[in-house]
Amino acid sequence: MTSEELREKVEIALDEIRPFLQSDGGDISLVAIDDDTLVKVRLEGTCVGCSVNQMTLKSGVEMTIKKHAPQIETVVNIN
User: How far apart are CA 51 and CA 56, in angstroms?
Assistant: First the structure.
């Protein structure tokens, strides 16, 4: 899979999870993909100060991204 194809798959995953975040007043954007294994995202809106944003990142965002792009190992939030 090329880097461009990987980016497209990650964007598809983010589009899948975005409505859930937006329903709570938040959002997410892709910052970068490093070494085709590390995805850097930025949680936005109410997600920034949310006390469960790490759980959302791991159980929701990371799981959804890995479903679309299994080679991704980690997803981190960049403030």
Answer: 10
